[in-house]
Model the fold of this input.
Amino acid sequence: MMLRYLGSTKNLLGCVGGLAGVVLYLTGVVGWSWPFVVVALYLAGALLAPGEKVRLVPDTSAELRSSLETLVRRVSSQASRMPASTVDTVGRIAEVLRDLLSQPARLAADPDLRHAVERLVRTDLPLSLETYLNLPWWFAARRAGAGSELVTQLDLLEAEAHRVAERFYASDVDRQADHTRYLRDRDG
Done:
């Protein structure tokens, strides 16, 4: 608790206020009462500083990245049992998800996007792969529909990952389009 306060905005602004009190003493603005001035300015800074933001939902981005990497590793080790190109599709899905998870603060700012990424990593992708891989190998090899179902599911999940990425980067795309319009208007 104490360590958390030391790095808080309240303490930092209080320290700036206290430092201003020391500077006032060193420049001769305040005399013998400088300790009181330092304490008063520290308290003023600490009291006026905004409180820390409450985070009720923990940041799980590192945990999700770890789960995703474990999943990709396990799928790669089972590549011989899977239909052609499915391992590549899983890799492409993972690449999109890794990119989104590499920006945890931005992802945390949009709970709907965060939920969509979490659902893809923890539920949809593992469920599709586990269901197929839990079939006996001889059954999956004889039944062509089992492999095509997995291919279809992975294609749908890849499309969903791209839709989530589109939503994630929508503001960047809009900013780029605005800048293009600005440049065209400036020249013409």
About this structure: The mean pLDDT is 88.
